[in-house]
Amino acid sequence: MKIIPGPASTELARETAKLLGEELLQTETKRFPDGETYFRFLDDIRGEHVVVIQSTGPPQDNNLLALLLLVHTARDLGAERVTLVVPYLAYARQDQRFRSGEPVSAKYVAEMIGRSGVSRVYTFEIHKEHILDCFGVPAFSLSTLPVIHKFLSGLDMGDLFVVAPDRGAERLAQGLSQLLGTEYGWIEKFRDRESGEITISKHNLDVENKNVIVIDDMISTGGTIAKAARYLLESGAKKVLAICTHLLLVGDAEKRLREAGVEEIIGTNTIPSKFAKISVAPLLAEAIKDGL
Ligand code: R5P
After folding, report:
1. Ligand 1, atom nearest to 227 Cα
2. Does ligand 1 come within 6 angstroms of the Cβ of 223?
3. Which fold does the domain 145-269 belong to in CATH?
4. Is 222 close to ligand 1, i.e. is its CB under 6 Å away?
5. Which of 132, 141, 215 shows the shortest CA–CA distance to 178?
6. Radius of gyration of the chain from Cα atoms?
7. 249 CB contacts (<8 Å, ≥6 apart)?
8. In the predicted structure, residue 193 carries a pLDDT above the cut 90
9. How far is ligand 1, taken at its centre, from the CA of residue 15, in Å?
10. Average pLDDT value for the chain
11. Does the predicted model carry a pTM greater than 0.85?
12. pLDDT of residue 155 exceeding 90
């Protein structure tokens, strides 16, 4: 088996290859002056089982195209099998036609990837599990809770309470609270599909004097967690930490979170950033080994 690092996941690929004890191949990558992506495999991959690791965080479209080019080329050059790891799957939130005339982007992206020549796909905390069926090849969404729990267990956090900032994240909050042996709760969120504006309905969460972990699958603009943090601090929380798998942190998301009183932002390296303090490489190495 050979590991191929995509340009958006070079560190994760290096770490995973090391854990697996497998060779990390080198590719030459650059961008043409007009913005198009160029890469070249530097090794012979004929007859090999290759694992392509390429995330599709911002800039999503460029990273997605790079992923498709990598997989197509690997097959074209004679790779016997391509396992794809797409740590963060772009467009996953548009998993249905919310308003008439819209695309079901998550489905189309999954179908496109599934037809590119991959034989198996791994991702992390996919926004909605039913999209896995659209790949048309075996596809798995791995939970990041074990590594998040391990990271948190190493911190002295005092009296804790776990909160989901919307119903979609309840599964994560419940799972983490079970691992930590704490209470959990959730907030009801409404997002105006046209303006994007977020409102929440108040709940009586017993967070007084507690350190609150707000957990979600992703932070994009930070709007969801900022709303939740303000409400939790108004309700007497001592401190609010934001934890999520995919840190997109677009625009002034960090500022928005800080202004809302979020003390720490912690994410995994499915998308590299200065806040990606938790590595998913051990989970990936294990899943790849189990899938062989
Ligand atoms: C939505 O269902 C997701 O789970 C996240 O809550 C959301 O995408 C976060 O986006 P933002 O940070 O822009 O509020």
Report:
1. 14
2. yes
3. Rossmann fold (3.40.50)
4. yes
5. 215
6. 20
7. 219, 220, 222, 265, 273, 275
8. no
9. 28
10. 95
11. yes
12. no
Q: Is the CB of 217 under 6 A from ligand 1?
A: yes
Cα 17 to Cα 36: distance, rounded to the nearest angstrom? 28
Alpha carbon distance 103, 99 (integer Å): 9
182 and 161 Cβ atoms separated by less than 8 Å: yes
Q: Which residues are catalytic?
A: 189
Please report, rounded to a whole number, the percentage of residues in the chain having pLDDT higher than 70: 100
Could you read off the pLDDT of 103-152 as tens digits, one per residue?
A: 999 999 999 999 999 999 999 999 999 999 999 999 999 999 999 999 99
Residue owning tokens 């119903």: 167
- Is the CB of 105 within 6 Å of ligand 1? no
Distance CA 280, CA 268 (A): 7
Q: What is the per-residue pLDDT for 130?
A: 97
- Out of 167, 224, 256, mutate this one to test ligand 1's pocket (max ligand atoms within 8 Å of CB): namely 224
Q: Could you identify the atom of ligand 1 that is nearest to the CA of residue 223?
A: 14
Q: Which two tokens stand for residue 135?
A: 């790949």
Atom of ligand 1 nearest to the CA of 220: 12
The CATH class that applies to domain 2-143+279-290 reads: alpha beta
Cα 90 from Cα 107, distance rounded (Å): 11
Residues of the chain with CATH 3.40.50.2020: 2-143+279-290, 145-269
State the distance from the centre of ligand 1 to the C-alpha of 149, rounded, in angstroms: 21
Ligand 1 binding pocket mutation candidate from 187, 216, 258 (most atoms within 8 A of CB)? 216
Does residue 93 have its Cβ closer than 6 Å to ligand 1?
A: yes
Contact 85, 119 (CB under 8 A): no
Residue 272: asked if its preceding bond is cis (omega within 30°), the reply is no
